[in-house]
Amino acid sequence: MKRVFNFSAGPSMLPLPVLEKAASELVSYGDTGMSVMEMSHRTAAYEAIIGDAQKLLREIMKIPDNYKILFLQGGASTQFAAVPLNLMNGSGKADYIVSGQFSGKAYDEAKKYGDVVIAATSKPDNFTYVPKTDRSSFRPDADYVHICYNNTIFGSKFPYIPDTGDIPLVADMSSCILSEPVDVSKFGMIYAGAQKNVAPAGVTIVIIREDLMGKARPETPTMLDYKIMADNDSMYNTPPCYSIYMAKLVFEWIIELGGLDVMKQMNEKKANLLYDYLDSQSYYTAPVQKESRSVMNVTFVTGDDALDKKFASEAKKVGLDTLAGHRSVGGMRASIYNAMPYEGVEALVAFMKDFAEKYP
Ligand code: PMP
Question: Which domains are assigned to the chain?
Fold first, then answer.
């Protein structure tokens, strides 16, 4: 069975060497005589896996010592509630930048818990860019400011880190974590569902500054309380064991390739190939303004819905899979995460040229 180039926004491609390594130890891990899937999380073997996963992530992202790394469940969507429950604990105010669908969902969820406002949004312009902000955009007594750093559906990314002064900045990095180096110290908290750049679905990474924990609102469910999770090394209950193991393998793969500087180079090379082609012709249009373009999720349209659908179905026939845009916006979306090889983007651009000639 030939593997396809899978452009899915998530779950998405995993590096082939990682899948092969997982396959090689699927039935028996090390000398344990059992699969990681079958292993108690309270064994030395599993504690080493989760401990290594944490250590490697800290190394790759250069996470400072005063930040905790948590491996949680419930997807990034559960963090939409966990963030206000844990952090909206002073003035009861939080400011949200709404630059796409997921930041809109995060905002809607947070509104259940306090005085939440939209500090800036590009909604009136169909989220075709990331709004600019400065310190005056935020209420000085807000408990935190929330952003979605990369907008998976619209294909845009923050070209800057908002300056929030002393207000903790919380970022949903689900679709861009590990795609490039980030200065973690600029954020109070970073979270990400794993199923794009990290692992199969099932684990959510939270990176949080220690001083922000331990002040959760009294109604916070135990499972959503960061301090409880941190005090129990993410094992208050059974963690998503296999996804964490897969994350560890992906972290090893990233380190072997040279870390996040190399990831950034590789990702920019792929994205440039695609954007340069998009900018060189008029058959396809890329709706996102250049400055806000995502390196991970590249969106484009022909301007004709029927043709867009044909594009995705014909591409699938030649091994270019899952190129339809999100069901809410249509068009096309090529998600080109870390595991997508350069050859996949080359094949896509060649197909785009052929398609434009075939259906002028
Ligand atoms: N935030 C972003 C940026 C996403 O891309 C997604 C999922 N595609 C989510 C949140 C929701 O993640 P989950 O399905 O893990 O809840």
Answer: 17-257 (3.40.640.10), 258-358 (3.90.1150.10)
